[in-house]
């Protein structure tokens, strides 16, 4: 089976029913997407499929068609995505385990809505659980990233 | 508590070595207290020869990069950053040159535990001294190179500076030839820098671990890959204790692709009983095989225990005034009760709660060259390393726990019980094994915060003067289950108690007569392994104390803040002690007075809205962080649903070492407190927790985020912990606000809408 | 002769009336079965009002609640912005207990087709009304039940969930039978 992750084509030999998350983590050693609940309710496993967020723990790999993007493919340690840069600026991460998912959800939101209010942010991110309580910083970082995106669109 | 702390700061009695090694400079504590006597040939030779494995706290390479080794678990508190900044500030280092490394369990690092909000508290002095010693040596060497007097030199931005001349740390290190030993006494001479001369401490900064946690490169225990490893999943038995495997039918599991059989575990450490693990060549396979395998058990005696059974025992124990261990005994509460004209009795309950760390517990284990290597995130390696050794039948020096980032600690990873099935499985199959608990497995194996019952009694005389308060608190005790040696004697020496399960009841209010009994709920203790959960004892004793103080104030028709202030007179044992609790209850009174102004206490609010106050002095009396919380809530009178509009938190933790980190920890702990107040609670049903995943266990999410207004008292007192104290006052502040909003007094956590509705005056 | 005829006619009409009565009663009983299906949580939880909030019911929930995680179907009924139903709901049910159920297209029913907490009479009126049933004849409604994959999910909702009663085929037959009998609605 062919799978395109972060712009790179991979050949994987797994059952079609295997959730995308385990293909990424255990077959391709892409460990940014995290295992949290296994039932699409914590959001730690969030990746993009063709630019839209998806809970990789609950999408069978056989149903994936198109480009998969993980946190590793959003930016690089040397050239962070605008959302990641805002995350560092606001010092969002505590334990950090949920943050790849939070960032992927936020990045997708800002693609379609570069000026989200609190309600839109809550809508897009309430399905991403954080136990450390970084929610206030996530909100602030999303707004900072949004402002930067709007600036660069001018 | 005290013993634990002494163990963990033992390195402060060791001599300190600084020497050129290779092309760098190492700064290390000598391995034993008497090291000075055996040191020959100077620090450099000892350090480079590694004759007795010194504890390298930090090193500077010839490019000036400073590496600080951190023996604390990183679980979101950016502890490495806080510790490194203490060192770097004393050194006069350029912060951008500083890196941190989390180390494994080599005994030289000393006792390893990260909990109780102690990390900064415990390391502040020794790390300041180590940094100051480093500065002294760099100045001495730099002065020589510059040809100036050392007394005329300072350090800043990783340079030794004398007037207009300067030399970089890198150049000093390159010149080599540094060789210096400080005795423990010499080291003790170094006092931490005065607040005015600090460059880094208490200044804004970025945490060193955050970029990796933002770009997906941070490595957690669950990310560990070992060559040729097999994936495993546990089959958690129906009871925590006493289950025995009678038979296993894996005919359906055999249909799973990549299934590699199962193991019935026999655990000599007796941590787990009746466990089976299933193995597969992928974790997906292990999950499916775990769903398919059928295990038959002889179940333990708690197979039918319910939450109500545990609560009922707690209620009976709390009511029985002869039960438990005396923790506070001031005056004569029995006489006060006898002479009382009026009295008030309230019973407070809290439900079982899960840790629900985002990263389910897991461990990867490999036996290699006679050593058992355990890879996982853990908070108390020193507690479970001996247990792993016992389980696998090896000596403790043949077990190494490698540390990773923790996808949430919150006390769950103080217990290292999840290492045991991984180690036993790896040993049985003779291959490296990565054992990952599914979320449901994790919940069923959690060392939950025990359900609790607390009975509070207050007594007044004929003149309506408050005579005293009696407090009985019954719960399962984590310390009894996992570290019984840390249990002190009661004040009357008749029995021991878990200090972590009663802290907070020994509050800073001055009462003429005050009795506190810590009571072990034996049914809870049998049914599960009670766990330490963020804020531990004060996280639920504070619920009773601060709710009851409010009830007492209202009964006396006194404003709840005025009432509290009247008892915070800082007399007697509440005067505090220098340096840690200097000021005592006065500092609590100041926090309370300040927050009253800050929140415009007494303002008129729309119908069904109210403000509520509660204070806290977490974590313990010998490391108090003084705090207050005001909650602004609105209650829907039709449904009883509570909306929290705003939480105001004011904390006095002495010197704030890392201001943004302090704010982050307090945001997190206050939101955890709110989650416990309104959203989190499960129940035992047939011997296990009934909520095992997010379909029914529903912690706080972003859409319930209130406005947060958090600030810190600005002073330069001794720094105390911040990871937990913010949590304590939130639930009682919310409950007290609910009372002020609609007159409903709720006494059970979590606060369910139905309970609010039922308590509303008709 | 005439009177005999009258008697006969009278008898017949009584019989016919009785038969009609019987047919009507039978049809209403058939409708009850249809209502039993439509009002079942597997169906009604997604036929929700204009709050656009899917519902959750089942043995693990004490009572029906709105979908957690602040989720809404939005006016589009397929999710809003970047939280589409398909963010979590795949094309098939998850294997894991309480995992997200799935079907090729996962969405809320159009807002006109409100079933949640509606009486038998209300749903009956709705299903007969082409303005509120997607412009379908009752035959087409029956056909829809037979053909639509999301509708079929109601009878194969994944592990741990109680399926809707009967089957898609039986339900389609009930609709056909009820329609032939004049599709009476309860009062």
Automatic annotation (TrEMBL), chain A:
Coiled coil: none annotated. InterPro entries: 2Fe-2S-bd, 2Fe-2S-bd_dom_sf, 2Fe-2S_ferredoxin-like_sf, 2Fe-2S_ferredoxin-type, 2Fe2S_fd_BS, Beta-grasp_dom_sf, Diverse_Oxidoreductases. Pfam families: Fer2, Fer2_2. PROSITE patterns: 2FE2S_FER_1 (PS00197), 2FE2S_FER_2 (PS51085). Keywords: 2Fe-2S, Iron, Iron-sulfur, Metal-binding, Oxidoreductase, Ubiquinone. One of its GO terms (molecular function) is metal ion binding. Residues 1-74 form the 2Fe-2S ferredoxin-type domain. This is Isoquinoline 1-oxidoreductase subunit alpha.
UniProtKB/TrEMBL annotation, chain B:
Signal peptide: none annotated. It comes from the Bacteria. Residues 215-301 form the Aldehyde oxidase/xanthine dehydrogenase a/b hammerhead domain. GO terms for molecular function: oxidoreductase activity. Gene3D superfamilies: Aldehyde oxidase/xanthine dehydrogenase, a/b hammerhead, Aldehyde oxidase/xanthine dehydrogenase, molybdopterin binding domain. Pfam families: MoCoBD_1, MoCoBD_2. This is Membrane-bound aldehyde dehydrogenase [pyrroloquinoline-quinone]. It comes from Paraglaciecola polaris LMG 21857.
UniProtKB/TrEMBL annotation, chain C:
Residues 1-20 form the signal peptide. InterPro entries: Multihaem_cyt_sf (IPR036280). It comes from the Bacteria. Keywords: Signal. This is Uncharacterized protein.
């Amino acid at each position: 089976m062919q799978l395109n992750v972060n712009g790179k084509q991979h050949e994987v030999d797994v059952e079609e029913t295997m959730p995308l998350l385990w293909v990424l983590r255990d077959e391709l050693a892409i460990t940014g997407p995290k295992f949290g609940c296994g039932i699409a309710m914590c959001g730690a496993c969030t990746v993009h499929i063709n630019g839209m967020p998806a809970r990789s723990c609950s999408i069978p790999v056989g149903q994936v068609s198109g480009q998969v993007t993980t946190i590793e493919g959003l930016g690089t340690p040397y050239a962070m995505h605008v959302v990641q840069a805002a995350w560092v600026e606001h010092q969002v991460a505590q334990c950090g385990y949920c943050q790849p998912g939070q960032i992927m959800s936020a990045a997708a939101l800002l693609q379609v809505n570069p000026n989200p209010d609190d309600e839109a942010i809550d809508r897009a991110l309430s399905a991403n659980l954080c136990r450390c309580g970084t929610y206030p910083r996530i909100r602030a970082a999303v707004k900072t990233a949004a402002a930067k995106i709007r600036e660069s669109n001018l | 508590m005290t013993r634990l702390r002494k163990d963990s700061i033992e390195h402060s009695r060791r001599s300190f070595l600084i020497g050129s090694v290779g092309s760098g400079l190492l700064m290390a504590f000598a391995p034993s207290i008497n090291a000075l006597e055996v040191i020959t040939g100077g620090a450099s030779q000892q350090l480079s020869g590694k004759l007795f494995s010194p504890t390298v706290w930090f090193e500077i390479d010839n490019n000036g990069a400073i590496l600080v080794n951190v023996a604390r678990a990183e679980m979101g508190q950016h502890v490495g950053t806080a510790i490194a900044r203490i060192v770097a500030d004393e050194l006069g280092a350029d912060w951008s040159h500083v890196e941190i490394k989390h180390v494994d369990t080599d005994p030289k690092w000393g006792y390893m535990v990260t909990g109780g909000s102690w990390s900064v508290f415990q390391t502040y002095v020794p790390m300041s001294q180590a940094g100051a010693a480093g500065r002294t040596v760099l100045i001495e060497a730099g002065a020589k190179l510059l040809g100036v007097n050392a007394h005329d030199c300072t350090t800043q931005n990783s340079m030794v500076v004398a007037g207009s001349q300067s030399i970089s740390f890198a150049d000093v290190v390159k010149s080599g030839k540094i060789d210096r030993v400080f005795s423990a006494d010499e080291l003790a001479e170094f006092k931490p820098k005065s607040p005015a001369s600090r460059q880094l401490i208490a200044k804004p900064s970025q945490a060193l671990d955050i970029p990796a946690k933002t770009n997906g490169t941070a490595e957690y225990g669950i990310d560990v890959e070992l060559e040729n490893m097999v994936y495993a999943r546990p089959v958690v038995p129906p009871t925590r204790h006493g289950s025995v495997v009678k038979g296993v039918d894996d005919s359906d599991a055999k249909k799973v692709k990549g299934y590699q059989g199962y193991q019935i575990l026999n655990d000599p450490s007796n941590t787990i009983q009746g466990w089976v693990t299933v193995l597969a060549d992928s974790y997906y396979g292990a999950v499916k095989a775990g769903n398919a395998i059928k295990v038959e058990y002889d179940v333990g005696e708690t197979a039918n225990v319910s939450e109500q059974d545990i609560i009922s025992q707690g209620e009976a124990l709390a009511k029985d005034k002869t039960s438990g261990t005396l923790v506070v005994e001031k005056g004569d509460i029995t006489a006060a009760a006898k002479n009382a004209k009026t009295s008030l009795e309230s019973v407070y309950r809290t439900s079982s709660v899960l840790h629900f760390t985002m990263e389910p517990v897991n461990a990867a284990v490999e036996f290699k060259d006679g050593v058992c290597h355990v890879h996982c995130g853990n908070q108390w390696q020193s507690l479970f390393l001996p247990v792993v050794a016992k389980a696998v039948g090896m000596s403790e020096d043949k077990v190494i726990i490698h540390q990773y980032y923790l996808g949430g600690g919150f006390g769950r990873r103080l217990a290292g019980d999840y290492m045991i099935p991984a180690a036993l499985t790896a040993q049985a199959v003779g291959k490296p094994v990565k054992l990952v608990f599914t979320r449901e497995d994790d919940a069923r194996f959690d060392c939950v915060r025990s359900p609790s019952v607390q009975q509070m009694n207050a007594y007044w005389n004929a003149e309506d003067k408050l005579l005293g308060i009696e407090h009985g608190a019954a719960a399962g005790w984590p310390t009894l289950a996992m570290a019984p040696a840390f249990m002190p004697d009661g004040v009357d020496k008749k029995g021991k108690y878990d200090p972590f399960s009663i802290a907070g009841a020994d509050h800073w209010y001055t009462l003429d007569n005050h009795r506190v009994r810590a009571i072990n709920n034996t049914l809870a203790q049998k049914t599960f392994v009670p766990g330490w959960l963020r804020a531990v004892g004060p996280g639920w004793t504070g619920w009773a104390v601060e709710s009851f103080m409010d009830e007492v104030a209202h009964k006396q028709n006194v404003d709840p803040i005025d009432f509290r202030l009247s008892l915070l007179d800082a007399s007697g044992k509440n005067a505090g002690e220098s340096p840690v609790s200097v000021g005592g209850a006065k500092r609590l009174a100041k926090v309370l007075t300040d927050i009253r102004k800050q929140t415009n206490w007494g303002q008129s609010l729309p119908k069904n809205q109210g403000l509520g106050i509660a204070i806290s002095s977490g974590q313990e009396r010998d490391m108090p962080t003084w705090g207050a919380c005001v909650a602004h809530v609105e209650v829907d009178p039709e449904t009883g649903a509570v909306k929290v509009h705003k939480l105001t938190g004011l904390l006095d933790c002495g010197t704030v070492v890392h201001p943004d980190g302090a704010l982050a920890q307090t945001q997190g702990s206050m939101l955890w407190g709110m989650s416990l107040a309104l959203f989190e609670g499960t129940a035992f049903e047939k011997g296990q927790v009934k909520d095992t995943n997010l379909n029914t266990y529903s912690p706080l999410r972003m859409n319930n985020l209130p406005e947060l207004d958090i600030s810190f008292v600005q002073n330069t007192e001794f720094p105390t912990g911040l990871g937990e104290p913010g949590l304590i006052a939130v639930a009682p502040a919310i409950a007290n606000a609910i009372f002020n909003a609609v007159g409903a007094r709720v006494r059970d956590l979590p606060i369910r809408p139905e309970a609010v509705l039922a308590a509303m005056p008709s | 002769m005439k009177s005999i005829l009258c008697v006969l006619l009278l008898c017949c009409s009584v019989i016919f009336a009785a038969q009609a009565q019987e047919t009507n009663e039978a049809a209403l009983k058939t409708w009850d079965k249809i209502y039993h299906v439509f009002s079942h949580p597997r169906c009604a939880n997604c036929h929700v009002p204009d709050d656009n909030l899917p519902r959750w019911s089942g043995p693990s929930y004490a009572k029906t609640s709105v979908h957690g995680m602040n989720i809404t179907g939005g006016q589009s009924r397929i999710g809003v912005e970047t939280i589409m139903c398909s963010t979590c709901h795949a094309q098939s049910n998850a294997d894991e207990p309480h995992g997200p159920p799935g079907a090729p297209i996962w969405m809320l029913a159009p807002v006109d087709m409100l079933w949640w907490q509606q009486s038998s009479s209300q749903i009956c009126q709705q299903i007969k009304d082409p303005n509120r049933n997607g412009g379908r004849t009752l035959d087409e409604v029956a056909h829809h039940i037979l053909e639509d994959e999301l509708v079929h999910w109601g009878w194969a909702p994944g592990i741990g969930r109680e399926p809707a009663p009967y089957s898609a085929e039986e339900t389609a037959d009930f609709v056909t039978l009820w329609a032939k009998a004049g599709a009476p609605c309860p009062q």
